[in-house]
Hints:
By secondary structure, the chain is an all-beta fold. Helix content is 0%, strand content 36%.
Amino acid sequence: MLRRFLFSSVCVCAQISATEIKHTATPIIIDGAAEQTWDNTQWQPMAYLMAGSQPKETDFSGRYKLLWDNQYLYLQAQITDDILFDKTADPTVKYWDDDCLEVFVDSDASGGNHQYNHSAFAYHIALDNQTVDIGDDTNAHLYNGHVISRWQRENKTPNAIIWEAAIKLFPNTYSDKQPLAPIILKPEQTIGFMLAYCDNDGSAIREHFMGSHKIEPLNGDTNRGWIDASVFGQFKLKK
């Protein structure tokens, strides 16, 4: 199923007030292990159906935490998924129909259409920890240099994994032909962010697409994050 829709100029905002992200003085080790530094911040839910059918809790449930330092936005997600499925070996082909973590990030929370530009990113992180998004040439590209990722099983909870990522943020003017250096993160900076999970238990296409923020439907469509960064939540970096 190709994800191609006409973009509407209607702005559907996900959230008005900004959620605070705490600073970490110690860089997070991206190893899929819940180190003690994460204890200082709260879990956020992934409770909203964005596409497909509503899963049972035993099929999928998810929550996440965020931290930051001047180089990275750090993500820890706890994902409960009874079947981990990666049908297509090529990470740039139908990646949204495999199990993957999808990280939406807008470095300045400016919102707007990012379908074929990099004013925001919709990083799909596959089970093999490769990262893909649509490039400004309308083709899928790997962005493995933008995201460090690793997951591993969590022994305490059946079917649960801990998935960690360190994400670099880039200026709105980033392009694939002329890549720019990542920005330095600073206190009081507001970013756009949303997290989702594509869940497939062995079907031709994904069965569930669950996200962290409620999206008001546009012509019945709530799968808007890969097109419109205005539906992301707003987060403020706090020292």
